[in-house]
Amino acid sequence: MKVFLFILLFLSISLSSLPAQDEPNKKVLSQLTADENEQDYARIFVYRPWRYTSILASMRMHIDKQAKLLLPNNAKDTLYFLPGKYCLKRKIGDAFPEYLQVEAGKSYYIKLYPSLLGYRLDIVDPFLAQQELTFHSYRRTGRLKEKS
After folding, report:
1. Counting CB atoms within 10 angstroms of each CB, which of 72, 74, 117, 147 has the fewest?
2. What pLDDT digit, counting tens, does each position of 97-124 carry?
3. How far apart are alpha carbons 39 and 26 in whole angstroms?
């Protein structure tokens, strides 16, 4: 009986610590139309500095199972998110996603770069990101693909 109660207590604690499910009505845009106000969205700068390693591979960033961004070498892109919490993953089964809480009218920076085990996705300090963005000359933009 004590073992059963211990197992029940353990399961209830472990299930309550799971992250909440993604909110369904979030919006990710690559461009704003004329009727959308920029102050209603958070601006997300995603960039990938030029590196010799994985030079031909496009790095992917999955956004809340709604869209994915393909970013080639030496590329940057600007996305617009509605306010809320977003789950950013390098791949669908990523065990360590990054969570980003965005607010309207603010800017955020995300850096994709190669590492020993594929590539990394990091949320970067704005000051450091602006220095990197001005130091490198980015020529290409990424492609945002909506998932159905």
Report:
1. 117
2. 889 999 999 999 998 887 777 778 888 8
3. 16
